[in-house]
């Protein structure tokens, strides 16, 4: 049987709770030596055993106090972690709602982009129709101009002819008036005049009167023709002026209709305003999606830090559980209450550990890191949105260049 040495007590005082080998040696010495069939234990061994138990109890009491403090700290950390998990859960729910809202906004934006693309196609179709109408109107205007030029040339030719006729009529009238003035002069009748042509004077006067009547009839006829020609020329001028006014009014109406229907500046302004509105809406949507993405990443980092802190707290608790030792209770039952408290703390620690495991399981039910990364990868980034904007800009710039 091995005997406990003095240095064993020193080791116990130095190490606190000793080693299993030390306690095994002490238990063998406490079995004692049988003398006359009765075991006999030396007093020195009993004193050493009591001293060692007392020191062990003192060390265990200190360890229990430290363990109680650590358990209280762990309880506070667990409560704080539960609150943090509740906050994180609230943030996760808010992020899920924000993500759903962002998805809805993306779907709405895609629908708006499709509508705008249809509207752009309709505008391009209308633009093509307007170009065709403009070409047709240009051809009609050219045809009207040709007809109008021919009509003006004809009117000018007719006016020249009428002016020549009027000048000739005026010349004949002047000649007739001159001749009449010459005829109205006093005629001196001589014998030769009287007997001229072997005509008697009365016959000559009758012939002269007939000539005067004929001249008056010719003059009257000429005056009537001149009046008719003047009225015809006046009517023709009025008709020409009316036709010119009608043609001018028709051309002005066509120009106003063209300006109202196909004003290039107005069409360009409308297209530019719609294009700028689409660009502004897309930029706002990109900004909102980028802000939601940054907030989601920040909350994910906070959640990851919290999970790491909880894992560290769980590792500390496991470390303290490994250091839990058996308690030797003496006959007086001094440490019974401490043992009950230790058991309660252990049970509470197990409940806290179970709550932490439940919280970890609840967190695992939420979106994990891979799901978040896959969602972020599937979402359109800024480069894709800029490429889409550039494509839309190219599609808008092509019809504008064609119109110009």
TrEMBL record:
Keywords: Coiled coil. Residues 57-119 form a coiled coil. This is Uncharacterized protein. The lineage of its organism: Eukaryota, Sar, Stramenopiles, Oomycota, Saprolegniomycetes.
């Amino acid at each position: 049987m091995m005997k406990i040495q003095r240095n064993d007590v020193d080791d116990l005082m130095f190490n606190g709770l000793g080693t299993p080998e030390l306690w095994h040696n002490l238990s063998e010495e406490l079995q004692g030596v049988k003398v006359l069939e009765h075991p006999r234990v030396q007093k020195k061994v009993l004193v050493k055993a009591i001293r060692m138990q007392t020191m062990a109890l003192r060390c265990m009491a200190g360890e229990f106090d430290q363990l109680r403090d650590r358990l209280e700290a762990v309880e506070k950390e667990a409560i704080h972690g539960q609150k943090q998990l509740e906050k994180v859960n609230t943030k996760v729910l808010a992020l899920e709602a924000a993500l759903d809202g962002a998805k809805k906004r993306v779907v709405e934006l895609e629908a708006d982009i499709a509508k705008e693309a249809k509207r752009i196609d309709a505008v391009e179709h209308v633009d093509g129709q307007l170009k065709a109408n403009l070409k047709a109107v240009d051809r009609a205007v050219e045809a009207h101009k040709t007809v109008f030029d021919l009509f003006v040339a004809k009117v000018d030719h007719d006016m020249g002819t009428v002016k020549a006729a009027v000048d000739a009529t005026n010349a004949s009238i002047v000649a007739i008036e001159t001749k009449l003035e010459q005829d109205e002069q006093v005629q001196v009748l001589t014998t030769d005049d009287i007997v001229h042509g072997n005509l008697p004077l009365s016959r000559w006067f009758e012939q002269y009167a007939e000539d005067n009547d004929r001249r008056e009839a010719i003059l009257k006829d000429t005056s009537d023709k001149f009046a008719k020609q003047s009225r015809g020329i006046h009517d023709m001028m009025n008709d020409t002026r009316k036709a010119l006014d009608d043609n001018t009014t028709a051309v002005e109406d066509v120009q106003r209709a063209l300006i109202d229907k196909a004003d290039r500046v107005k069409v360009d302004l409308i297209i530019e305003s719609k294009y700028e509105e689409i660009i502004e809406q897309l930029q706002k949507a990109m900004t909102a999606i980028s802000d939601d993405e940054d907030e989601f990443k920040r909350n994910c980092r906070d959640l990851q830090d919290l999970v790491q802190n909880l894992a560290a707290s769980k590792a500390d608790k496991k470390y303290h559980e490994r250091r839990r030792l058996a308690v030797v209770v003496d006959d007086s039952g001094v440490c019974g209450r401490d043992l009950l408290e230790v058991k309660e703390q252990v049970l509470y620690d197990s409940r806290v550990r179970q709550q932490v495991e439940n919280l970890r399981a609840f967190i695992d039910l939420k979106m994990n890191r891979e799901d978040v990364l896959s969602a972020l990868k599937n979402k359109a980034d800024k480069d894709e949105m800029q490429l889409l904007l550039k494509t839309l800009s190219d599609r808008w710039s092509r019809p504008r260049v064609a119109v110009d």
